[in-house]
Structure to design on (84 residues):
């Protein structure tokens, strides 16, 4: 897998990692969070990096869509759920 550098240069995962990896994490939000948890539990750094990248891109896209305070609260909750 291509090394993931920060700050992210794009909102498209395909522009950051190879196509196969981008397709692997192109799943619904609940499954993605389960993958993050599993990668963390099994201490698989490359999988954790990839899944966290997908979550961060999701958050980055959501931030651009935030129009009111309620959406910000939802976004903070999303980050909380993902990290813990």
């Amino acid at each position: 897998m291509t090394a993931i550098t920060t700050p992210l240069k794009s909102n498209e995962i395909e522009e950051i990692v190879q196509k196969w990896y981008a397709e692997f994490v192109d799943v619904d939000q609940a499954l993605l969070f389960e993958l993050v948890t599993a990668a963390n539990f099994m201490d698989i750094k490359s999988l954790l990096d990839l899944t966290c990248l997908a979550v961060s891109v999701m958050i980055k896209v959501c931030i651009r869509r935030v129009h009111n305070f309620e959406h910000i609260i939802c976004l903070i909750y999303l980050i909380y759920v993902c990290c813990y």
About this structure: The two ends are 26 Å apart (CA to CA). The chain is about 65% helix and 0% strand.
